[in-house]
Amino acid sequence: MKQKAARWILYFSGLIILSLGIILNTKSKFGVTPIISVAYSYALIRHLNFGNVSFILYVILAVIEYIVKGKNFKLYDLLQIPLSVILTRFFNLFGAVLPDVSAMPARIVCLVLGIALTGIGAAMNVNTRLVPNPGDGIVQAIADRIQKRIGNVKNVFDLGCVAFCCLMSYFMTGSIVGIGVGTVAAMIGVGRFMWLYNQFFKKRQLAATGLAQ
Fold first, then answer.
1. Coil, strand or helix: which one is 129?
2. What number of helices (H) and strands (E) belong to the chain?
3. What is the distance between the alpha carbons of residues 100 and 82, in angstroms, rounded to a whole number?
């Protein structure tokens, strides 16, 4: 019972940390993580709520995942929708609570912390082996369908998101919105922080949640 409770506590803790990391990325104004860049750019251009646009994006990703998985799609996978509601509400909460920054040192701190927390939160979520967020779920589904390594699929998917965001924002405004050096840093850094977390804490987390083999 304690291990099951620990599993859910770590899962939701990872969710909160992931949300905080994503919002810190937006606060840096250096560009956001690739998957969320489409929602961020569109919300910025249309002056819409970032959390709400992100929720729509996650629902679209969940639908695509359903198509990709076909007969392998389980009712359990539908839990990604309520998960998206929770995740994007934290986007709105942190977006409202955290102040905007303009000074370069503060922006750099936001970027580094954002990348670190995004990686740590993602690793915590993945290690609980519960409901993945739609961004991770779609990548895993594609990797399983075409039988390629998830790391390679993730890289291609990220590049596709960045390319789509660039094209969308350029046609809508005549310039690139939401993509910058921070996007490139996130593409490299998030995976590194996931690796670091797993190096030091994965075994402890799996043991605490009863998932250690």
1. coil
2. 8, 0
3. 29
Do 23 and 113 contact (CB within 8 A), yes or no?
no
Contact 34, 158 (CB under 8 A): yes
**What average pLDDT does this structure show over 43-60?**
93
pLDDT at residue number 58: 92
- Confidence class of residue 143 from pLDDT cuts 50, 70 and 90? confident
Nearest-CA neighbor of 114 among 30, 12, 200, 45? Answer: 30
Q: What angle do CA 54, 36, 162 make, to 5 degrees?
A: 135
- Are 131 and 75 in contact by the 8 Å Cβ rule? The answer is no
Q: How many C-beta atoms lie closer than 10 Å to residue 57's C-beta?
A: 23
* pLDDT of the residue at 213: 61
Query: Mean pLDDT for the chain?
Result: 88
Using the predicted structure, report yes or no on whether residue 135 has a pLDDT greater than 90: no
Task: Look at residues 213, 211, 209 and name the one whose alpha carbon lies nearest to residue 13.
Answer: 209
* Cα–Cα distance list, 186 to 36, 156, 161 (Å): 11, 14, 13
The residue whose two tokens read 């539908």 is 78
